[in-house]
Amino acid sequence: MGRAGYRLTEPRRVVAELVARRTGHFTANDLLEDAQARDIEIGRATVFRALDLFAELDVLERIDLPTGDHAYVPCLPEHHHHHIVCDTCGRVTEVEDLGLGVAIDQIERRTGWEVQTHRLELFGRCPTCQSSRDD
Amino acid sequence: MGRAGYRLTEPRRVVAELVARRTGHFTANDLLEDAQARDIEIGRATVFRALDLFAELDVLERIDLPTGDHAYVPCLPEHHHHHIVCDTCGRVTEVEDLGLGVAIDQIERRTGWEVQTHRLELFGRCPTCQSSRDD
DNA sequence: GTAATAGTGAGACTGAGTATCATGTGGAGA
DNA sequence: TCTCCACATGATACTCAGTCTCACTATTAC
Question: Considering the entire predicted model, what is its pTM?
Answer without folding.
Answer: 0.87
